[in-house]
Structure to design on (832 residues):
């Protein structure tokens, strides 16, 4: 906390010296670049110097350094020249003498907050010296970005520079008093940890981690949590090497699908053991997910009630999936189907003769997809809410002119591909999909490729001897 | 884009339920950096334009960006934000860009060359101060090419001159000092390269032309040997004005109420300034032994209970036995005496 500072009384030893900065600058100019401090190495001499000056000038710092035990002194604010009244007069004179030898430090001692490299000069500014009354417009300043048109006074830049120089000198002297370590880049100064200006944080400090239910219970019962005991790797007998305890390709994995599984004890011999295994794994996964979510909810990382909501939705989806795609077929009438073909009220579980929201959205999707602009410039009805961008990632077909080079070279290939697809059909993949029911999407009435229970056609046009076909000579060419 | 609290929770739900893939390590590191930390780094700054911003004010923002690079974001578009009326938009933008400090520049007839600087705490505006810039000399354009410029990312020295910075009860200037320190101090570090200091920002406050003016000057520092005391290792700075220079006046302000201000400054227990132990009772002898001194009140030894052991119990028992024996013998004696008296009086022995 920046403490209030009364006007300092000038000690007897301080001479009233007006700092002539121009002359000082000239003095600096005389020194060659090699004499500047940046290139100096920090030797041991430096440290000794620092320690001696540090002890006497310790009262400079408002905040205690991380080693010093000057408790009583640090609780008050001290400036350089005044020092603590409890100190010896001799020590005080010593500090003052040090300040006067550094004449660049000026006559107004500052207080510091070294954590933020901040100097505070709380003396009153001399407005007579600071401001120059403008006669007319400030001519040479018209060219800057925001010219001082509304200011009646002009600031004496030289005066400000002088004052700044004195404060800066003091600040740098104070910086050099702090503990210095030499590193390979140069002398590193350790700044005090505590912030004297009490600057607020940007976020509240992180809350302590909340215990999970198991951790609570274990603590209560005195059960150890095994967190540090377990090693990351375990010896796997099967492969004879050290593998990770958890995760992909873990050690001693029993859950692999063996081609033959024994029927043990009370198990039903007609049950599917692999199905059973998968069910068990699924249930374990779900349980783990649920308990993790509940722990996080308790800790406040999730919105209250999300776990229950999620579980309910999952249950619903599973039930719907188990019943098959039939629910969709009757509850959501297909968009392209004429009204009279739709299942009537009497048949099936349908609530009204209206299309319904789901059906409308499907129809909208289909029409948007069919439009060249993918629905971006469609007219909207009055009062219609904003539409979501449905086909954002959809790629439109490019125009392929018949004289385009790339088109000519690839055209034949592409046409053959399509042809083959038509002639050969989708192959085994398509059959599988159809049997599973993936192709019975039902967006429009023409999307049905369902399993009608019929196998490949066995119809033969030619019968008898003609069915075998004409006998042709097997030449070498034909064999190839 | 730092996520808001709501978004964080929603994405966590998805991650746990398996419907969303956990992002890659780089993204996770970034998200962790936007969460609250025990010990905080410096704050990022967001520079915005208000409803109408002049070219000069855009230059001011560019200047601020140069000063605070790389922890600063300058947005180009104009925003329909009036900071003193509605902070919601500001809060949202600062959250999304993960910037705790902001500056909104605008220019209109009523408030020309207006710069609102402020800071947020916990995604909400904490303090705001409106500065009217009366004079601005840009380091990028107005100072000639010969001038030294500060390096990107260096930590500035700060200085506040003038007694008005300390007037706590009547004015806003102490709060403004705190805000300006926060705005310009840069990264928060434990150690600093002593020779890496290259600029100082000086804020001078003085009453003038009826109001109070604040002058911000930036000087480039070159550390030189002390020409008057060549033996000293402590360098003396050579200052050269390099800009940017601002002359401004404080217009409106909005400070946090004391509760929020206190809460914002509350550090976690691990970082709080530890009270140094006042060991009055400990002394160390010349042999290096640490002696402690206990201070007790006067004890009433007689009324105190002590521990009993076998020997004490035996002694007690023996004492009790002795006493009982003594009592018995006394009683016998008395009885004898009484018997003698009886005999004397009545001539025959008493018979029970």
């Amino acid at each position: 906390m920046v403490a209030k500072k009364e006007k300092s009384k000038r000690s007897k030893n301080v001479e009233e010296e007006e700092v002539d900065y121009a002359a000082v600058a000239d003095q600096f100019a005389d020194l060659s670049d090699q004499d500047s401090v940046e290139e100096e190495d920090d030797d041991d001499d430096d440290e000794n110097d620092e320690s001696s000056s540090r002890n006497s000038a310790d009262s400079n710092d408002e905040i205690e350094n991380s080693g010093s035990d000057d408790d009583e002194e640090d609780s008050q604010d001290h400036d350089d020249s005044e020092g603590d009244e409890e100190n010896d007069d001799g020590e005080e004179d010593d500090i003052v003498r040090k300040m006067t030898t550094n004449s660049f430090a000026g006559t107004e001692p500052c207080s510091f907050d070294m954590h933020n490299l901040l100097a505070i000069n709380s003396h009153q500014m001399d407005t007579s010296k600071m401001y120059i009354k403008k006669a007319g417009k400030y001519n040479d300043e018209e060219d800057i970005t925001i010219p001082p048109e509304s200011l009646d006074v002009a600031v004496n830049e030289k005066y400000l520079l002088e004052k700044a120089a004195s404060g800066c000198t003091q600040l740098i002297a104070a910086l050099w008093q702090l503990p210095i370590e030499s590193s390979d880049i140069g002398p590193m100064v350790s700044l005090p940890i505590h912030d004297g200006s009490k600057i607020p944080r940007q976020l509240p400090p992180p809350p302590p981690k909340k215990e999970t239910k198991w951790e609570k219970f274990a603590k209560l019962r005195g059960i150890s949590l095994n967190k540090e005991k377990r090693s990351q790797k375990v010896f796997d007998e099967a492969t004879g090497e050290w593998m990770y305890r958890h995760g992909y390709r873990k050690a001693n994995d029993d859950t692999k699908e063996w081609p033959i599984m024994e029927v043990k004890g009370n198990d039903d011999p007609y049950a599917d053991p692999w199905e059973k295994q998968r069910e068990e794994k699924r249930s374990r996964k779900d349980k783990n997910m649920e308990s993790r979510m509940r722990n996080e909810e308790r800790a406040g990382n999730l919105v209250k009630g999300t776990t229950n909501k999620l579980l309910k939705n999952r249950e619903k989806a599973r039930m719907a999936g188990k019943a098959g795609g039939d629910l969709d077929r009757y509850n959501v009438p297909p968009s392209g189907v004429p009204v009279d073909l739709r299942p009537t009220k009497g048949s099936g579980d349908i609530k009204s003769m209206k299309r319904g929201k789901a059906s409308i959205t499907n129809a909208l999707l289909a029409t948007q997809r069919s439009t060249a602009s993918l629905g971006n410039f469609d007219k909207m009805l009055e009062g219609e809410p904003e539409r979501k961008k449905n086909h954002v990632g959809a790629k439109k077909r490019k125009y392929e002119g018949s004289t385009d080079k790339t088109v000519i070279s690839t055209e034949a290939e592409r046409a053959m591909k399509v042809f083959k697809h038509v002639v050969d059909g989708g192959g085994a993949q398509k059959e599988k999909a159809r049997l599973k029911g993936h192709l019975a999407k039902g967006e429009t009435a023409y999307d049905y490729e369902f399993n009608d229970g019929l196998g490949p056609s066995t119809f033969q046009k030619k019968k008898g001897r003609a069915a075998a076909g004409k006998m042709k000579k097997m030449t070498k060419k034909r064999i190839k | 884009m730092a996520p808001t609290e709501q978004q964080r929770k929603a994405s966590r739900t998805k991650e746990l339920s398996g419907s969303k893939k956990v992002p890659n390590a780089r993204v996770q590191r970034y998200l962790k950096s936007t969460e609250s930390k025990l010990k905080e780094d410096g704050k990022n700054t967001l520079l915005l334009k208000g409803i109408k911003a002049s070219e000069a004010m855009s230059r001011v923002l560019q200047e601020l960006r140069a000063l605070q690079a790389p922890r600063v974001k300058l947005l180009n578009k104009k925003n329909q934000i009036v900071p003193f009326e509605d902070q919601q938009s500001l809060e949202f933008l600062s959250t999304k860009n993960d910037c705790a400090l902001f500056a909104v520049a605008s220019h209109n007839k009523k408030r020309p060359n207006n710069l609102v600087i402020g800071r947020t705490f916990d995604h909400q505006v904490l303090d705001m101060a409106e500065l009217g810039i009366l004079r601005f000399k840009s380091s990028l354009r107005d100072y000639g090419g010969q001038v030294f410029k500060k390096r990107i990312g260096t930590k500035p020295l700060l200085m506040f001159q003038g007694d008005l910075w300390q007037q706590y009860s009547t004015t806003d200037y102490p709060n403004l000092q705190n805000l300006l320190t926060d705005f310009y101090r840069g990264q928060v570090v434990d150690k600093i390269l002593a020779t890496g200091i290259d600029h100082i920002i000086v804020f001078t406050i003085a009453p003038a032309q009826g109001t109070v003016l604040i002058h911000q000057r930036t000087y480039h520092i070159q550390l030189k040997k002390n020409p008057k005391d060549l033996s000293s290792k402590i360098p003396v700075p050579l200052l050269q004005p390099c800009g940017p220079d601002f002359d401004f006046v404080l217009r409106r302000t909005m400070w946090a109420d004391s509760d929020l201000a206190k809460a914002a400054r509350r550090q976690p227990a691990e970082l709080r300034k530890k009270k140094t132990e006042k060991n009055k009772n400990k002394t160390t002898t010349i042999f290096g032994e640490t002696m402690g001194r206990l201070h007790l009140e006067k004890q009433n030894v007689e009324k105190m209970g002590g521990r009993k052991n076998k020997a004490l119990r035996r002694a007690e028992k023996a004492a009790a036995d002795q006493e009982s024996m003594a009592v018995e013998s006394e009683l016998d004696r008395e009885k004898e005496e009484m018997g003698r008296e009886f005999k004397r009086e009545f001539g025959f022995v008493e018979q029970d």
About this structure: The beta strands of chain A are 111-113, 118-121, 131-133, 153-155, 180-182, 187-190, 233-236, 241-244. Confidence is low (pLDDT under 50) at residues 1-21, 29-100 of chain A. Chain A touches chain B through 96 residues (CB under 8 Å).
